[in-house]
Amino acid sequence: MRIQLLCALMAAAQCFWAAFTASGHPGSGIVVDAEGNVYFTYHRHGVGKIDPQGKLTYVEHTNGGHWLCLDPNGSFSRAQPKHFERITPDGVKPALIFAEGGSPIAVLRDGLLYYVSGEDTMTPGGLQVTRQPPGGEVSIFPPGGKSVTGKLGITGLAPGPDGTLYIAQPNAVLRLKLDGTFTTIASSIELSDCDVDYPDHIPHNPNVPLPALRGLAVDEDGTVFAAGVGCHAVVRITPDGKVETVLKAERPWSPTGVAVHRGDVYVLEYTNANGGRAEGWRPRVRKLARDGKVTTMFTAPPEP
């Protein structure tokens, strides 16, 4: 089941974020396993894999694809969960879960899969957190959580080192504990060096919240890295809420997803990420090392 949104039924801000959580945007999924293999969504091939020696292969050759997550304990079989697909063999740990639709996904230490839904667990949308145990029924978490996340919507999910869930919103980052309580890490984020790039379907809309955060990842010390797709920038947010730009992307590239592994930050970028597919979506993967060195690991060739 593809997770799509109907912008005409939503208010301006929610309509904007529909484009980021529906199938009308390039992929945002990038993860790194314990061995240092980098996996990323590539709309032409499904999932690309870059091993520690830099060799590129493809794990899944399904067109489309937006999000990835690691299932540390391999809890979900290839037949589950219902709306997503496990693309590693049963028994392999960690497992890769691939979202062909547009919902951000994460598996936490509790072994449950968390994703984003609309008015209820089966309705498309980017309004609230929904969770599913292996083989179990889905439920909204926490009940009434939409009162916190519904106004701006949810544009990214990531597991935290303490077993909590981190949530990206257009200009904020929240943390959701397993007891159902929310904490604001940073809100009303503004980047003084933002290279403003509004989406084509809402040109120069002052109601669009920049930096338009999308994919995010959390380091072992609770530092958050997030893709500011509307500012062509990757931002770092410390546990006490300090925000700074740590990487810029030159046009037409813009970051759409990030991953962290042993202090290094891996960034998935796409050309024309704020435009439609007809403008050309071409991915690349860059690495921001702990010492500040930036390396390009992969750049897709121009599409025919």
Structural overview:
With 304 residues, the protein is mainly beta. The chain has a single domain, classed as Neuraminidase, CATH 2.120.10. Helices cover 5% and strands 38% of the residues. It has 2 helices and 23 strands. The chain has helices at residues 12-21, 146-149, and strands at residues 30-32, 38-42, 46-50, 56-60, 67-71, 85-86, 95-99, 105-107, 113-117, 128-132, 139-140, 156-159, 165-169, 172-176, 182-186, 213-218, 224-228, 233-237, 243-248, 253-261, 264-271, 283-288, 294-299. The strands form 6 sheets. It has a 4-stranded antiparallel β-sheet, with no helix packed on it. A hairpin with a 5-residue loop joins β1 and β2. The model is unreliable at 1-23 (pLDDT under 50).
Rg over CA atoms, rounded to whole Å, is: 17 Å
**Strand adjacency order, main sheet:** 1-2-3-4
- Main beta sheet: 4 strands, antiparallel
Structural class: mainly beta
Average pLDDT, all residues: 87
Contiguous low-pLDDT stretches (5 residues minimum) are: 1-23
Termini Cα gap: 29 Å
- In terms of DSSP E residues, the strand content is 35-45%
Care to give the gist of this entry?
This protein is mostly beta strands. The protein contains two helices and 23 strands. The strands form six sheets. It has a four-stranded antiparallel beta sheet, with no helix packed on it. The protein has a four-stranded antiparallel beta sheet with strand order 8-9-10-11. A four-stranded antiparallel beta sheet has the order 12-13-14-15, with no helix packed on it.
